[in-house]
Amino acid sequence: MTNTLVQNESINKVEEIKDSILEHLCFNLGKSPRIATLHDWYMATAYAARERMMRNFVSYTEKMQNKKLKIVGYLSAEFLMGPHLGNALINLGIENETKKAVEQLGINLNDVLEQEEEPGLGNGGLGRLAACYLDSLATLQVPSVGYGIRYEFGIFDQTIRDGWQVEVTDKWLRNGNPWEIVKPELNYTVKLGGHTESYTDDKGNYRVKWMAESEIKGIAYDTPVPGYKNGVTGILRLWKSEAVESFDFHAFDKGDYYGAVHEKVFSENISKVLYPNDVSDEGKRLRLSQQYFFVSCSLQNAFHILNLRGLSIEEFPESMTFQLNDTHPSIAIAELMRLLIDEHQVSWDKAWDMTKRTFAYTNHTLLPEALEKWSLPLFAHVLPRPLEIIYEINSRFLLTIRDKYPGDEDRVKRMSIIDERGNKSVRMAHLATIGSHAINGVSALHTKLLKQDVLHDFYELEPEIFFNVTNGVTPRRWIKLYNPRLASLVTTHIGEGWVNHLETDLIKLEQYANDASFQQAWHDVKRQNKTDLADLIQTVVGTKVNPDSLFDIQVKRIHEYKRQHLNVLYIAHLYNRIKQKRAEGIVPRTFIFGGKAAPGYFMAKLIIKLINSVAETVNNDPEVNGLIKVVFFPDFNVKNGAHVYKAADLSEQISTAGKEASGTGNMKFAMNGALTIGTFDGANIEIMECVGEENFFLFGLHAAEVAETKANGYWPYDIYNNDQELKQVIDMIQSGVFSHGDTNVFKPFVDSLLNVDPFLVFKDFRAYVECQEKVSAAYANQKVWTKMSILNVARMGMFSSDRSIKDYCENIWKVAHG
Ligand SMILES: *Cc1c(COP(=O)(O)O)cnc(C)c1O
Q: Which of 101, 115, 710, 744 could form a disulfide with 17 if both were Cys (CB 3.0 to 4.6 A apart)?
């Protein structure tokens, strides 16, 4: 095509998009341009983009009717999608045209994008991973459906009052959601509670009937997921709960109207709110009901799709494969068995074979307290029939263990799905492992530790079903959309193939690492990104920060294992040095934190308070004179992440070794040009291997040393006594230096560190300080730093979620990919 042709086509596209926006403004919103608000313009633009996806959506859904294609069902209790519009425009390849179209309507596209409230249907990394995977599945043209819950209230909005986190309900649906399409005809009934009755059918078979206490209905809400410039639109299918008409027949029989209404309220509450705990969850009836609810709807929908494709029940495992994103959906194993046996009259052995071939399980955590367990009485109360099936799965499984390891009753107890110790419970990780044909960890270290510790017995039994799939993130959202300056600099030099071929193309940047003018351009991009963030901080937090200082950023959920407090102790240490006139070697730094704490996690909330208290003291001390600044950026989410990752010089990935399964924030930072200070944990290790040790700031204990330290008896108090600088920092916090003299507020924090220090903050403190000094020295030489930054980005190709999805396709799902 000649340039004029391209130009004409583009002009036509602009006209077309403009017309489409105006039509939607009129027909869907009932507004004229004169009275339209910015939000109206956002809605109209969203509808215009959605319209373009729907044609692909329909043809893609048609394609899924092709019997030979195996469909991937990605089961996840969380999808942290982030705002849709910007991403849709990038993937549809119409961002420039849309920008021009809205400009011609007198509006700025960024103002329009700013209107979108993100669907916060996830807590953090796990939910965001699911979202990156949907983007890659569509981009790689893998027929797939993401299945989850349409929470009416997602993760709470975080505000900060007097330094403390205050949670505000996330009413993300209040202004309407232009992206979803309700499918009332796709509705399924889900049973809860009650009891079971057995009988013999007319062929003489033993059968079980679940006499439920109540039934709820799940309705499908579909959100299109565009692939990158490939005409494909995938599906995110979320279930909303509703009461069925005769909501509680038993209660009505007894004339218990109020009781019946209570049950109705319960059913309607199932999809009401996301549990805001990213790691562990107490045994809540509603949470278990949520998990069963969305899994049952999804599997019933899979039978519907099977039927549409004209396939038989026996063909289920060849027709669909289901990935369990952690144990949250692992009840699916019992539910598929139930559907096959109770509803489709399949024999146990055949059903079990089919079930195992259908599921694969991704483990996401090594923290013992985060391994999901449900108390047996609760489970029996909510899911009596699935529990019977779990008992049967377990007894058959344990027979094979006793057969293979005669006399090893300890092993039988360890491997049982039912934990018989103390208050009996159901171990969901065991159910997921036993019911799957593939189990994977999410980084090389994590997989190694899974095999070694958490699932060791299972690994011994069947080593060939364990895999590693290192996490990845999508370069469409995390580079092209959220770092347009860097994206355009990169494209100018190596072409735009990197956007969907990161693994092969990004490395071409290496040749420019020593190029002085490229280095300058690279540095300028970072500098402008930092200025943008500095402006935003000024607006949101009211703190003035210097864009020429080192931007040292830690954004992620607040948790002791992630060790935001190690970072804070270092800041307090720098402050102490400044006060003691020992500031030599300190480079100007801005420490930026962001992240939500689970509302019931006292220590995490106290860490937020400490960060804000240190910020207040340090930022307002004239002796510091702006040398260091501390900022807590409130309400960290995908939308705010857009401004944060791209502006970082230094990425803080300082979890206790062996605790962070992978991390994905570490990848987003590094592929946007931040250098990492990190422990030997999760995907940090693989990042370091890729970018080179010389371009990575590694410190601290290794996982094995962490385990050893704890096993040998760890005395944090001794470390405190033997490290004068650490002692001074802790004493400052305790004595109220950061709390206007209040010696009570941080006492639980100090006590916990001195007496227990469960995540070895003291043990790693000295190594961290020394490593931070290396960072400061390196930053002092901007040319060298920039070169390191370029090399980091150039070598991050393997951390595209496209690579992860290809690994799943090839090793686990056995499906073709584009
Ligand atoms: C990437 C991301 C996370 C995960 O961050 P980690 O550093 O891997 O814990 C959490 N929340 C949001 C909003 C993200 O975008």
A: 101
